[in-house]
Design a protein that fits this description.
By secondary structure, the protein is α/β, with parallel strands linked by helices. The protein folds into 3 domains: 13-161 and 223-392, TIM Barrel; 402-598, 3-Layer(aba) Sandwich (Rossmann fold), CATH 3.40.50; 610-666, Sandwich (Immunoglobulin-like), CATH 2.60.40.1180. 30% of the residues lie in helices and 19% in strands. 49% of the residues are buried.
Length: 672
């Protein structure tokens, strides 16, 4: 069995993608010297090097990589060794042009970028196994190798291919899922618009159609696409497990909901040995540290609460956003330690040395174009010392307050054509509810809707358009046994085949919520409605009939005027709240405050943008206090304790300067 942490890495991971193939060998020794100065403990190597490792079909050149791995190993730095399968060589595409992906519009994409792959191509599948075997045989027992890093950011920038080979693979996937055409026709509701199939060869991908394409077909296509990419990861993983026993295998997720939409990471997380993630700030977004926290919480949840690893983020500006905003002084360190606070056992970057060539030459790096006299370099060295000081944190787990349900497949279904409102977006609602929890200083675990929820006093469902009977039963059971459930609008509407549940909306949740929805009443663009508690909402409203629930707030104007807007229902020993509109931040925070009181969760009287997260381990507990504001703050703590970054002894409170981080450690942690 492979390890669940990079082998031989006895500290928090610190370093980044190292691409020495872009530099002469005279630079390599200087790189390693500076890595040691910065406190680097691990680097990722070889991710984009297939054309160097196999310059001609079946001809290999490993000499440069042998030298590099020995050099890095002799310096005491561990290696995450990549399989370079995200960019096959030019000769591969010349031999196998069919391995280039075809868009939904029927256009075959060209070589000259990255990730231009048809994952159903037999030639590609054979080639990735071959290069993985070569690397596994040569370096499977190399003392530098701590972790295998397969491919790079699956699904970015291309996940789906619509070619004939993929169509055949889709049909095989469907035959495994449904067995017979009769079952497929029933699942897809093909009697609608006369789409019934009587031969498997008639079934195609959801290519460009004159109007809305069958939604059940599109949903299954999205599931197939995620599975098809996952199968290629498994092909490489299994080769490496066989040839490099004991060394864990991973691939880097992009779990922030704004960064990768095409993979069901709940399924992927079960197949990696170590969950790793890439996160890049959406630089122009107000309070973008909230999305950072959300990404970290999602990744930790994918790891089932175990420590995970931030495998990429940026020291400063990226190169691919409309306006690549530089990070302010201190922001890079604050971002990094926020990830550590939320469960990452390290902070890695893209990349070590800034490139002079190619599309990413304006992407920031640990060693920037400005060199070692730069502010970024000084902050990199400072952060390396901080990461070293936090070694006792390694292996501890985050203490969460509440759970938030999220399902990629439900998101795929909700965003298809012809839903009641183009403005109602599951991701936006997840972001909004998460921000409300953040402003209530509640630490969030994300959970799959089928997960065991009894350990959480409060569960929030920000958006769950598709809901199976098993999920509905799971939520009823949770509430009946004493849990507090908060459900947002347009949830529980269809089953896993995108078929509307029988009876009034919200079919799967009527009983637990104690109400029915007579009609959806989407709002006009820019329209707002008022509620009788003084708050406002936009995008969506519903006409509700109470069936046991109590009215908390009502609409005072708009298409649902006079009807309940927010309700509360007692079921068994628990309560279920329903929010039938898109409340703004103040309204969401108020609902969460009241639901948290039902759940007997203690409140935290802390200023806005002061982030407080706890990690608990065998030897103690660690309180991360991150000040994202422009003013110094004081946070009460229970002493005696020690601040790990400064060595300060702490008794009753800790002062945190503007933009700084403090980590309070104690061996005995009192009850909150």
């Amino acid at each position: 069995m492979a390890a669940q942490w990079p082998v031989g890495l006895d500290a928090l991971a610190y370093g980044g993608d190292y691409n020495p193939e872009q530099w002469p060998k005279t630079v390599w020794r200087e790189d390693v010297r500076l890595m040691r100065e910065a406190g680097v403990t691990m680097v990722s190597i070889g991710i984009f090097t297939w054309s160097l490792l196999e310059p001609e079909p079946g001809q290999y050149d490993f000499g440069w990589l042998d030298h590099l791995l020995d050099l890095v190993h002799d310096s005491g730095i561990r290696v995450a060794l990549g399989t370079p399968t995200v960019v096959p060589p030019a000769w591969f595409y010349q031999r196998n042009p069919e391995a280039l992906p075809v868009t939904r519009e029927g256009v075959r994409l060209a070589f000259g970028s990255r990730g231009a792959i048809c994952h159903s191509s037999a030639a590609y599948q054979q080639a990735i196994v071959s290069i993985a075997e070569q690397l596994g045989r040569r370096y499977g027992r190399h003392p530098a190798v701590a972790l295998w890093h397969v491919h790079n950011e699956y699904g970015v920038p291309v996940s789906a291919c619509y070619c004939d080979a993929t169509a055949a693979a889709f049909r095989r996937w469907l035959a495994d899922r449904y067995t017979t055409l009769k079952e497929l026709n029933e699942a897809w509701g093909t009697t609608f618009w006369g789409q019934t199939y009587n031969s498997w060869t008639q079934v195609q991908p959801p290519r460009l159609t004159p109007t809305a394409c069958n939604p059940a077909q599109q949903l299954d296509w999205a599931r197939f696409t995620s599975d098809e990419l996952l199968e290629n990861f498994i092909r490489e993983r299994d080769v490496l497990h066989a040839l490099s026993p004991g060394i864990p295998v991973t691939t880097n997720f992009q779990a922030a909901l704004s960064q990768c939409e095409s993979l069901d990471y709940w399924a992927w997380a079960r197949e990696v040995d170590v969950v790793t993630n890439d996160h890049y700030l959406v630089a122009e977004t107000d309070r973008n540290h909230i999305n950072l926290a959300m990404s970290a919480d999602i990744t930790r949840s994918l790891a089932n609460g175990r420590p995970w690893l931030l495998l990429e983020h940026s020291t400063g500006a990226v190169n691919w956003q409309p306006r690549n905003i530089a990070k302010r002084p201190g922001e890079m360190g604050r971002n990094s330690l926020a990830h550590v606070g939320r469960g990452s056992d390290g902070a890695m970057f893209f990349q070590w040395r800034a490139s002079r060539i190619g599309a990413e030459k304006f992407h920031s790096a640990m060693l920037p174009h400005a060199g070692t006299e730069s502010r970024i370099w000084r902050e990199v060295v400072r952060l390396g010392r901080a990461i070293g000081a936090l070694a006792p944190v390694r292996g501890s787990r985050v203490v969460a307050d509440i759970a938030m349900l999220w399902d990629w497949q439900s998101w795929w279904a909700q965003r298809l054509e012809w839903r009641p409102s183009v403005d109602l977006d599951a991701r936006e609602r997840a972001d909004a509810w998460y921000a409300a929890a953040y402003d209530r200083h509640l630490t969030v675990d994300f959970a799959h809707p089928d997960a065991e929820l009894s350990g959480y006093p409060l569960v929030v469902v920000p958006a769950l358009y598709t809901m199976s009977e098993s999920v509905a039963a799971n939520l009823r059971r949770y509430v009946e046994k004493g849990g507090v459930l908060v459900v947002s609008c347009f949830s529980g509407i269809v089953d896993e085949r995108d078929v509307v549940h029988p009876g009034p909306y919200p079919g799967a949740l009527r009983d637990v919520l104690g109400l029915t929805v007579d009609e959806f009443t989407p709002l006009l663009e820019g329209e707002r409605v008022r509620l009788d508690n003084g708050t406002t909402a936009d995008i969506w409203a519903e006409v509700i009939t109470l069936e046991g629930a109590e009215r908390i707030w009502s609409y005072t104007n708009g298409p649902a005027a006079g009807h309940p807007a927010v309700t509360r229902h007692t079921t068994g020993r628990g309560t279920a709240w329903y929010v039938s509109t898109c409340l703004g931040q103040d309204g969401l925070v108020t609902v969460l405050r009241q639901a948290a009181a039902d759940a007997m969760l203690p409140g935290r009287d802390l200023p806005r943008d002061i982030e407080v997260v706890e990690r608990a381990g065998i030897e103690g507990r660690y309180l991360f206090v991150i000040n994202h504001s422009d003013e110094e703050t004081t946070v009460p703590v229970t002493g005696p304790a020690t601040e790990l970054l400064t060595g300060e002894n702490v008794t009753a409170h800790i002062q945190v300067p503007a933009g700084e981080v403090r980590v309070v450690a104690r061996t005995i942690w009192s009850e909150r």
